[in-house]
Amino acid sequence: MSATSTTCYVVSFLYDEKSLADLGKLNSTLTEAGYRTTLLDDEGHAHELGTNSFGYVTALSEEEVLHQAKGLGEIALGKDRIPQVEVKEWDPAMYKNQSK
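The structure assignment produced for this chain is given below.
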C-alpha cells in the first residue's frame, strides 16, 4: 500500500455575475463537492478566502483540480457561462493579516 500525499489548493473563479443567485449557486455546488470557503493554517487560525475563492484539500494534481473546478463551475452557472478558473497551492502567509 502506498502513501498518497495531499495538497491544499485555492481555487478562484472569474465570471460575469448576473445576480447574487450566481454566487449562491457556485457556493452551493462547490461546498457540496467538498470545497471550503475558509482554510486553517498550521496554528489553527481560520482564513477567509474571499468571494469566489475556495479551498480544496486533495491528492489530485493541480491540473486535475483545474479540470474538476471548471466542470463544477459549468454545473453551477450553465454551459453558456463557463467561468475562468485559477488554481494555486495554498500559501497561508498570503492570508496572515486577515485572521486578526
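Interim note for the steering committee: Strands lie at 7-14, 38-40, 46-48, 53-58, 84-89. The first strand starts at residue 7 and ends at 14.
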